[in-house]
Each structure stands twice: as C-alpha cells, then as structure tokens.
Amino acid sequence: RRERQRFVDKNGRCNVQHGNLGGESSRYLSDFFTTLVDLKWRWNLLIFLLTYTVAWLVMASMWWGIAYLRGDLQQAHGDTYSPCVANVYNFPSAFLFFVETEATIGYGHRYITERCPEGIVLFLFQSLLGSVVDAFLIGCMFIKMSQPKKRAETLMFSRAAVISQRDAKLCLMFRVGNLRNSHMVSAQIRCKLIKSRQTPEGEFLPLDQCELDVGFGTGADQLFLVSPLTICHEINSESPFFCLSQRSLRSEQFEIVVILEGIVETTGMTCQARTSYTEDEVLWGHRFLPVMSLEDGFFRVDYSQFHGTFEVPTPPYSVKE
C-alpha cells in the first residue's frame, strides 16, 4: 500500500489550506457571524465568556459611575434623599444590580428611582444591548450545536471500492449505509474523479475534476437510504475508466471523491458526508458480501459484513480491450 497525500480524507475532511490571502482576509470580518460559527468549540466558548464578562464589567462600571457622580456611594444621607439606584454603595453592589436587571431576577432590594433620568436612559440602553448580545451569541451557539456535521458520522461508506461485472457490464461499485433509523430525505450521491492530466495544448492540470456517472440520467443517484446500498458506475466508452485494466490499475494514480447529500429528517437541515477512494483502495475482481437477511417479520442488516468483499471471476482487460 502506497502512502500519498489525499485530496479528501476517508472521514471527509478536505486537505486544502488557504494561504497568502493578503487583503482578502477582511472578507471574513464582513461575514463575522459565519466566521464565528466556523470556529472551533474552544474559541467559541472563549469568545462567549469574554464577551459577557467584558459587557458585564463595563455596564456595572457605568452604574457605579452614575452612583459616584451623584454622591450615592456615601451612605450618610437623610431619609428624604432619593438615590439613583437604591442600596448601591460600592462596585460589588452596582455589579449585582446590573446582573439582577440583565437576568430579570429583580430581588427587590435594589431598584431605580424616578428621580434619575440618566439611570433610566442607561437602563433602556442596557436592555437593548443585552438583547442584541444574547441574540447574537446564543443564536451562534444554537446554530453550532444544531449543525448536521455529526449526523454525517452515522453515514457509512465501504472502506474499499470494487470492480467486477454486473449484468454483463464492468462496473465500479462501493457501498453506503445509514446507521440511524431516521431517514435522509432526498438523499443524492455524486462522484468526482480527481486526477492530474495534461491538455493537448500542453497545460498541466494537477487536480482535474471529472464527473463519474452513478445514475444521473436514470435517477439511480436518488437514494432511498433505509438499508445499505451498492452504488454502481458503469464503465463504458463515456467513462474515464474506459481504458483501465487490472494491470494498468497498479500504475494509475487517482482519487475518487464520493459526496452524499440529503436532508436530515428530524431537523430539516441539509447534511453532507464525504469520503474518497485512492487507486490502492479499488479491488479488481471483488464483490461485496450480502448484509441483508429476512427474519420474523422484518429485514435485518448485518453491519459486520458491511466492508467485506470476496473474489469473483472477472476479466483482467479494460472495456476498450
């Protein structure tokens, strides 16, 4: 088995990094919400904590500043004195008043009096700012938690692809399966062949993408994925593997990227699962083991045989030959 750089890992991660963006990196800030959602969880939690901590300290300092400027921090006042915020004597008490107001707790010990217009204005500003911050950060966390990326973990692809005959035609086949009982609505599968080539004009294309037909014309690419399915690409004169034989397979260098898309039934969000097969993971003259069996009133899927293959008589020649 030859170890080489993959364009797409088996788990679906694309091995592409963007560098030397220059001034184009400012585009990330123009779409700050998507940038925040795309960050890793540790950065999201750090931004979440820092934003609330800074906002709380700043707003508490503003309440403390109003009390300081009005002289409310001096506890020696007469009975007729009306402070801006009752029972705010220092910064901790101002911080507690802000938290009680922001969280709508309202213990009743601290409250704004009607003779403090600047406090009323600050209270309205705090309410609006708090609503915006809560909507932005909580919405970001909710979207990140509800992303269907983890749903792709329960969509399986066979470890290897096989080439053998089906209906007297040479076919490239691989297997897909859904581990959950919930269905993938409008599931569709696509395949891309990633291979370097040189054009007749002499231009070298290092990662040229070519479409592999897996039933687009017949509708076979639309999957009813309630049980493991074997996806078939017929090797004919229109296929990029028209000249591929068992012998030439050993010297070829290509990668087949498989993309499975569908709508998650429980959330209604679009999910995408990816994998890839290199030339070392394509087995010539093999067929997948059966995984379906009929039992008492239902069909059982044996996933222990999901990746299993066995050899079958297959001509070693290409379709062209």
CATH C-level class of the largest domain: Mainly Beta
What number of domains?
2
Regarding quaternary structure, what we see is single chain
What is the C-alpha radius of gyration, as a whole number of Å? 31 Å
Report the order of strands and helices: HHHHHEEEEEEEHEEEEEEE
- Low-confidence spans: pLDDT under 50, at least 5 residues? none
Topology-level CATH name of the largest domain:
Immunoglobulin-like
Structural class: alpha+beta
How do the helices and strands line up, and which of them pair or pack?
Blueprint: H1 27-30, H2 32-38, H3 41-70, H4 91-102, H5 117-145, E1 155-157, E2 161-166, E3 169-178, E4 184-198, E5 204-212, E6 222-223, E7 229-234, H6 246-249, E8 255-264, E9 270-278, E10 282-284, E11 286-288, E12 292-295, E13 298-301, E14 309-311
Parallel strand pairs: 2-10
Antiparallel strand pairs: 1-3, 2-3, 3-7, 4-5, 4-6, 4-8, 8-9, 11-14, 12-13
Helix pairs in contact: 2-5, 3-4, 3-5
Q: Your description of this structure?
A:
With 321 residues, the chain is an alpha+beta fold. 27% of the residues lie in helices and 27% in strands. The protein has six helices and 14 strands. The strands form four sheets. Strands 1, 2, 3, 7 and 10 form a five-stranded mixed beta sheet that branches. Strands 4, 5, 6, 8 and 9 form a five-stranded antiparallel beta sheet that branches. Strands 11-14 form a two-stranded antiparallel sheet. Strand 12 and strand 13 (298-301) form a beta hairpin. The longest helix has 30 residues, at 41-70. The model has no long low-confidence stretch (mean pLDDT 86).
